[in-house]
Write a structure and sequence with these properties.
Shape: elongated
Distance between the termini: 62 Å
Low-confidence stretches: none
Organism: Sulfurifustis variabilis
Largest sheet: 4 strands, mixed
Structural class: alpha+beta
Protein name: Transcriptional regulator
Radius of gyration: 23 Å
Strand order of the largest sheet: 4-5-7-6
């Protein structure tokens, strides 16, 4: 490794990731701009790794034979799209609302993503593009002294009821509610259930609260109008079961108290 390369890595290595613009500033390149060639050489030598177009991470000596950046998967996720929030099953696990550890990192954003990456640095990612109105209740958290964005506990529950396929099914949300009700803000749950823009969410939440004997289901009915028609309790499962007229649901999964 040359001196200029060593100096460069010492500076950018203090950051989680860096861009071509960051590299250009550190190198002081102005004319004829050999920044890209410089980075290509470092990548060939195994000192940096491209995360996505124009974004890189340093590979520390501590990585050993693996020769991969020592970045937490949530920090990598923040580099894949902007804005980004750890969500669904990943957020459920992060908040301690499930013991299940998903093999994929679920990331939400508020716009369509062309050619979303499926695997980066050996990590599987699932990018979910939401309508801007559904992208809310995102908070900052920290891991390895690096910041990342994540949906708060209540929004994670509501997201799971909106798109159960990304949390392992409604049963996983039922377990989260039953095991962590004292940690959840019921007022937020009611508010988010109305704000998410999917009438099935309030139906599912109300049914689960009533079945599991949690909180005040009547307050939810008053706060969020129950739309006519029947929605499946779990849309990921076959539409077979009993109809619950009170909540307008086809109960196609058994919820254990």
């Amino acid at each position: 490794m040359g001196r200029s390369e060593a100096r460069f890595l010492a500076v950018v290595g203090s950051r989680a990731t860096f861009s071509i613009a960051n590299a250009r500033e550190v190198l002081g390149h102005k004319s004829e701009d050999p920044t890209r060639q410089f980075l290509e050489k470092l990548q060939t030598k195994g000192w940096i790794k491209r995360i996505r177009r124009g974004r890189f991470a340093v590979i520390p000596l501590s990585s050993g034979e693996a020769r991969t950046p020592q970045l937490h998967e949530f920090i990598v996720a923040m580099e894949l799209v902007s804005p980004a929030a750890i969500a669904y099953w990943s957020a459920l696990n992060h908040h301690g609302l499930t013991e299940q550890l998903p093999r994929t990192v679920f990331v939400a954003t508020n716009h369509p993503v062309r050619r979303p990456p499926k695997q980066v640095l050996g990590i599987n990612f699932k990018l979910i593009s939401l309508k801007p109105a559904k992208f809310f209740a995102v908070v900052k958290d920290w891991i390895d002294e690096q910041p990342f964005q994540v949906t708060d506990k209540e929004k994670t529950i509501i997201d799971g009821l909106d798109l159960p396929q990304y949390v392992g099914g409604v049963d996983e949300i039922a377990k989260a509610l039953a095991g962590n009700w004292s940690e959840l803000d019921e007022t937020k749950l009611r508010h988010y259930a109305g704000k998410i823009g999917n009438s099935a969410v309030a139906k599912r939440l109300g049914f689960l609260m009533e079945t599991l004997k949690l909180g005040d289901p009547e307050a939810l009915r008053k706060a969020v109008p129950i739309a006519p028609g029947f929605s499946p309790l779990d849309p990921t499962l076959p539409k077979r079961g009993k109809y619950n007229r009170r909540w307008g649901l086809l109960v196609n999964v058994e919820i254990k108290r």
